[in-house]
Amino acid sequence: MTIIYDAVLSYLTWPWTLVIILLILNFKNIPWMWHARFLRSLLDCLVFGRNKPDQLTPDALFLPSITSTHAPLSECDYNLHKSNSTYWTDLDMSRGRLGLLLFQKGLSVFPGKDATLSILSSNSIVFRQEIKPFQSYEIWTRVLSWDHKWLYLVSHIVVKGRFKPESCFLQPQVKGRKGKSSQRPASKEQRLKGIYASAISRYVFKKGRVTVPPSKMLDHCGLLPLALPSHDANERTSRNDMMTSDSLNIRSNEHLYFDENKVQLLQAIEKRRIDALPIAQLLAGWDAVHDQFMGDTEPALGRYADLLWG
Fold first, then answer.
1. 145 membership: H or E segment, kind and range
2. What is the Cα–Cα distance from 150 to 121, expressed in whole angstroms?
3. What family does the Swiss-Prot or TrEMBL record give for this protein (predicted)?
4. Structurally, how many domains does the chain consist of?
5. 97 in any annotated domain
6. 157 with 139: CB under 8 angstroms?
7. Is 5 part of a structural domain of the chain?
8. What CA–CA distance (Å, rounded) separates 100 from 235?
9. Which of 47, 251, 289, 310 is deepest in the core (most CB within 10 A)?
10. Distances in Å between the alpha carbon of 111 and those of 71, 107, 237, 305?
11. Residue 48 lies in a domain
12. Within the chain, how many helices (H) and strands (E) appear?
């Protein structure tokens, strides 16, 4: 054993030692690591069964998935803070995790002629504060709204550990803030101070060459209590009209009766969708996007690490 130890030390000259240290410190950005990071999420959801599609209910629709990660030196620019261009790969991981959690039942695992896929159409981001080298942070990503074609996601990159959700919908074993009377939720001002950046992402669902309306995908995945109509491109329905059970085109004619609680829940979901749609389309300004961060005032889907650690 001593001979092997001495042989290893003889090869570990200071240049090799420096290389190994740099690789460890920048593990997040070594070649093929993007694929390994996404594969980890894929295996978590599809192979190890950390969450089951039948666990989802409409209560999970607007809840965020929380991904923790950090900024290695290789992601920092000459100003010694995280480079703006590196936020996109972090958002890839966070959005990918949310998609696997919510739409596992509706999406195809492998691409193909008739596969159902979610395709990213556009990204927009605004920065509020810098992230320093080796600093840890969290990405809270959730469904914001949708229309006849597009599904809009909002992501908030925030200070790690500052905000603790009430509970975790898919991780009941994880302790949340709920039940701790001494720990009050953060105020709006405190939430804004904890945001490094906010992003809006726009997705479309495709089955082959056919566009799948987001409402149909949500219904298929059990995220709507009853079916919503596929919103027409030229739809200009007023908010008050959308809040009646008749105008919601509820799929109740097939039955002799329907659950009034489901109707009320569907109306609440539709109201939230309509209220958030101008924000998702960036018609209300970026301050409105930052304000969409709910922090520890609501539950979350779960908390996840980007790598083996955050």
1. strand 136-146
2. 9
3. Belongs to the lcsJ thioesterase family.
4. 1
5. yes
6. yes
7. no
8. 30
9. 289
10. 32, 10, 36, 26
11. yes
12. 9, 7
Residues near 164 by beta carbon (within 8 Å), at least 6 away in sequence: 176, 177, 183, 296
Q: Classify residue 295 as left (phi > 0), alpha (psi -120 to 50) or beta.
A: left
Handedness of CA 296, 91, 222, 292 (dihedral sign): positive
> Cβ–Cβ contacts within 10 Å for residue 309, how many?
10
Look-up of token digits 């991780």: 171
Asked which of 102-111, 156-165, 301-310 is least confident by mean pLDDT, the reply is 301-310
Other Cβ atoms closer than 10 A to 66: 26
In the DSSP assignment, the letter for residue 141 is E
Largest CA distance in the chain: 82
Q: Which residue has the tokens 């949340």?
A: 176
Tokens of 244: 């009646």
Q: Give the rounded distance of the alpha carbon of 269 from its chain centre.
A: 18
pLDDT 10s digits, 2-41: 666 665 556 667 677 777 777 777 788 888 888 888 888 8
C-alpha gyration radius of the chain: 22
Domain holding 113: CATH number? 3.10.129.10
Is pTM beyond 0.90? Reply is: no
For residue 31, what pLDDT is reported? 86
Of the candidates 106, 210, 100, 208, the residue with the CA atom closest to the CA atom of residue 149: 210
Distance CA 169, CA 21 (A): 39
Report yes or no: 128 and 67 within 8 Å, Cβ to Cβ. no
- Residue 200: strand, helix, or coil: strand
Looking at the domain assignment, is residue 7 inside a domain?
no
Measured distance CA(181)–CA(183) in Å, rounded: 5
Name the strand (E) or helix (H) holding 116.
Answer: strand 116-127
Question: What value does the mean pLDDT take over residues 276-290?
Answer: 97
Q: Which residue has the higher pLDDT, 88 or 50?
A: 88
CA distance 243 to 260: 14
Q: How far apart are CA 261 and CA 216, in angstroms?
A: 21
Mean pLDDT on 148-176: 91
